[in-house]
Amino acid sequence: MTPPRTPDQLHRFGYLGPRGTFTQMALDAWDAAEGREHLPFGSVDAALSALRAGDIDAAMVPIENSVEGGVSATLDSLATGEPLVVIGEVLVPITFVLCARPGMPLADVRTVGTHSHAWAQVRGWMGRHLPDAAYVPTLSTAASAAALAQPGDVMFDAGVCAPVAARNEGLEVLAEDIGDNASAVTRFVLVARPGTLPEPTGADKTTVVLFQRDDHAGGLLELLEQFAVRGVNMTRLESRPTGAAMGSYCFSIDFEGHVLDARVGETLMGLRRVCAEVRFLGSYPRADGGRPDARPGTADEDFDRARAWLDDLRA
Amino acid sequence: MTPPRTPDQLHRFGYLGPRGTFTQMALDAWDAAEGREHLPFGSVDAALSALRAGDIDAAMVPIENSVEGGVSATLDSLATGEPLVVIGEVLVPITFVLCARPGMPLADVRTVGTHSHAWAQVRGWMGRHLPDAAYVPTLSTAASAAALAQPGDVMFDAGVCAPVAARNEGLEVLAEDIGDNASAVTRFVLVARPGTLPEPTGADKTTVVLFQRDDHAGGLLELLEQFAVRGVNMTRLESRPTGAAMGSYCFSIDFEGHVLDARVGETLMGLRRVCAEVRFLGSYPRADGGRPDARPGTADEDFDRARAWLDDLRA
Amino acid sequence: MTPPRTPDQLHRFGYLGPRGTFTQMALDAWDAAEGREHLPFGSVDAALSALRAGDIDAAMVPIENSVEGGVSATLDSLATGEPLVVIGEVLVPITFVLCARPGMPLADVRTVGTHSHAWAQVRGWMGRHLPDAAYVPTLSTAASAAALAQPGDVMFDAGVCAPVAARNEGLEVLAEDIGDNASAVTRFVLVARPGTLPEPTGADKTTVVLFQRDDHAGGLLELLEQFAVRGVNMTRLESRPTGAAMGSYCFSIDFEGHVLDARVGETLMGLRRVCAEVRFLGSYPRADGGRPDARPGTADEDFDRARAWLDDLRA
Amino acid sequence: MTPPRTPDQLHRFGYLGPRGTFTQMALDAWDAAEGREHLPFGSVDAALSALRAGDIDAAMVPIENSVEGGVSATLDSLATGEPLVVIGEVLVPITFVLCARPGMPLADVRTVGTHSHAWAQVRGWMGRHLPDAAYVPTLSTAASAAALAQPGDVMFDAGVCAPVAARNEGLEVLAEDIGDNASAVTRFVLVARPGTLPEPTGADKTTVVLFQRDDHAGGLLELLEQFAVRGVNMTRLESRPTGAAMGSYCFSIDFEGHVLDARVGETLMGLRRVCAEVRFLGSYPRADGGRPDARPGTADEDFDRARAWLDDLRA
């Protein structure tokens, strides 16, 4: 086994590109990536494949949006294939601008290009201000700005993107803050190859994917009881199809605590026993610094005391 | 209150268009829509808005794909706004073809247009046969075929769509059955305004959206216990962000049985008591005809016997 | 079916005798029995047999002591045979005196007679004051006083009984308040034939005996979930052997609420479904007047609102 | 700490006397006690006090009867005071005879002496054959035989006891097998001071007393979930009053497995965390040799594999 690589040993950072996306903003907010190499990828799959192949040392990818929900490409790519682990998370507030080539009046906009997730988040604004505008999908929000910035014909009159993308491309901003949900946030995770386990900070999260042994009724209930009985709180639960058949699901779950915590360790062992497979996707510091609010009897000291008591009984 | 409209009174059927999509295939498979008016809409939102406005009587929309998971646009549009109900479901096997203008050899394909969900389901095939092809997003799979069929410039060399769309548009099929998962199925639901409650058939499903009273740990566990204690099996559970804040979720759930079944009624009342809101999205016959496998003590006759016994005690 | 008899129609009250027992004190504390006929019986079985036979209209019997626990004879006699129901309860503080024939000094007491349950409750005092006294079992505490009061030989020098028994029999009290637990209380129940259902008062209790369908692991857990999911609190749980085999138990349970309460009704139906048998032993006002502290979503109004909502969905 | 005493080091065995009781039969059935000193005690309390004081090395006492239920004196004496542990159990089939002084005809029996627990188990036979016989309580079944065997006056005409007691005392057996339940069994436990932990045999039991942290609704449910989530089956659950107040209970529980088993260890730690106190009363071989029927995922190997997997994640 190779010695664990500490975050200091991460040199090449991939991200879901192109430049000007919210994902780049997330990577820019990651201190340990400052001054290192940043490489854009065309898709989450491409970034994670490069990571698995050793071409990069870490990848920043979106995993969850407070309005649109889980990012399927990331969830599914982490859930299968060569193991990867999350080593950190970044929360980025999401604000959209409507931008166009200089000189285009808002009233003349007939077509709008952007990524489908962004479009879903500005539908309200569009309904009120450009009810007749047609939607043209692009590969990313930044791609809509880039297309407008290129000379020649373009498929749409205006784009929806992050303020930084409009600025980068020298476009005119027709309207700011056009997201329907002012408090929209996207959560990004920094992914690495196994071998890097961040130290527990007391305010950590752990991510797993659970595959049930069989699809019996009450199966999910049984999994959740493994958390409840040790007082471990979940912060995200997504069901994702395994692809095997309609109705066959696995569960992607984030929960409070670190794999080195006693209560998390016992919970993981319990899940391991009752699941067909538990895929461990890492323990890492929470971006919001929130500490778990342990029910009586479920703090780590309670686990330690119980262990000491048992050792004594067995002696 | 207007008298309930029976399915016979449904005359105008909307669907997620354009022509040539899998959704149209689902509507074609719905016997009661034969010979009625079929109207394509550009988005799930547009179809459901027209339904809410009374412009159409029912809308066929996708809700769940066995490979890609829940269809967020449908889930979210049903979960908010004026109430709508599901009155039926259709399962459509998903098969994709690669098509192009007549004369284009497979080896010359450099760019491929299709809907992002379809692209996700043919990535494996593309990696093996067209590893260097660039992806161009379109609004639907059928839209990629339609674009190729129009004269003049087009943004891509080939499209990925349903066989029927390639045929409709007179395109050449370069490769058949290119989906990575041969058993991929999409589930469509026929949605109507409340007032239409299909009769129980003994093989039914009910759909609800549950909003928790507060986001306390163990909240989901409490909801699932309401099902378990009455022996009601879930067939789908999706968490969807409410948009209020990162980590604030509602749950979209399908389960076995009909609102008129005793055990379903008691389950719904239990959920209503412990949730902030229960949004009832209809009871309808299952497309697969599967009957629930009731645990001892949870069949409808058990509920009836228990009710008779209680009435006797109270007399 | 005979018309229900109201408590006013109860004329003949049996009790676990003889005169001078705590059971008589309980019956004396029952207002509705004032001025009616009071008949002592030699055992709980004898009293309940007379009640079943119609020789008496009600019987006051002990069911639970705060120090000694459940009274097996009562629990078992109610759990089998012709149905009977509890229609009320009385709490009696338990205080014991040591009594003897006039002239007997405490220091000369060598043998002490009393009922085995009373002996268990004064062991501490005896250990400190009469460590060498031998114990002689009697059929009741009052019987020990009665024996001392009769002329001629007696099997013991002193008795342990209620203050009233010593007074009734003209005995000398050698020591007062000799119980080891100053707050000892015994709970008595007034039992009648079915047909008498006390009105709900808002502060009621219900008693049942539950027989499991099979003795599978987790069987009791399943029963308790029927209570938990409707927010119904248990106030007593006793396991009693069914006699069928070592390890075969039924459960005698008291819980808050009245059979006419919505949440109690649904709980009883749930138990009826999952149990081999539910024996209903009555709903009656609590002696302590305590009202249930319903969790959010489990008050009767919550059940009513949920029912109205369901009726609306089904309309 | 003194080195653990193995059963071979037990020399003086106390039991609930007098000679001729079922408890003596249980001690006779305990191979390791053969040839050692056997000392009868007048009560369970007396035997366990002598054990705590070091006057004896072990004590055989009854704990549970298949007809009459738990033996309160034993349960309560083990639950409080200086710790003791169970190191073995014996099952004794219970058969009663009716005996008298030679020459007494059955038809002349007017009074019957025996222990109250025995009387409870022959009530049916008495109702059929001696419906008018009065009951006289004695300290034990053997004491009734001993009283009849002594010269001079006696308080009753016949006794109910074990066949061996009638034989020992030279009495005449008027009727055999008079127990109402032909398969009645009493379970006895051999109790010792802590320090003796029998080896796991694969067919073991563990006994604990659980004191809840507070008497909240659902408290017992929470305790049972600690067992359920590790697949540990209970074989006995008794609630016993703590004496603190009416309705304040602790739980005396036997369950399958040995404290050295992984799943039992984790269960005990879980109970320790959520309880105010867990009193460990020993792990010992089951008298019936029954092995636990572990649910999938709850066998000791499952625990071992889960531990190895976790250790690997943490490395």
Automatic annotation (TrEMBL), chains A, B, C, D:
Q: In which pathway does it act?
A: Amino-acid biosynthesis; L-phenylalanine biosynthesis; phenylpyruvate from prephenate: step 1/1
ACT domain mapped to chain residues: 208-285
Q: Which CDD domains match?
A: ACT_CM-PDT, PBP2_Aa-PDT_like
Its domain of life reads Bacteria
Read off the InterPro entries from this record: ACT-like_dom_sf, ACT_dom, Chor_mutase/pphenate_deHydtase, Preph_deHydtase, Preph_deHydtase_CS
Would the keyword Protein biosynthesis be found if you checked this record's keyword annotation? no
Transmembrane regions:
none
Q: Which UniProt keywords apply?
A: Amino-acid biosynthesis, Aromatic amino acid biosynthesis, Lyase, Phenylalanine biosynthesis
- Pfam families per record: PDT (PF00800)
Catalytic activity, EC: 4.2.1.51
The enzyme's main class, written as a single word, is lyase
Residue span, Prephenate dehydratase domain = 12-193
Known catalysed reaction(s)?
prephenate + H(+) = 3-phenylpyruvate + CO2 + H2O
- Protein name per its UniProtKB record: Prephenate dehydratase
Lineage of source species: Bacteria, Bacillati, Actinomycetota, Actinomycetes, Micrococcales
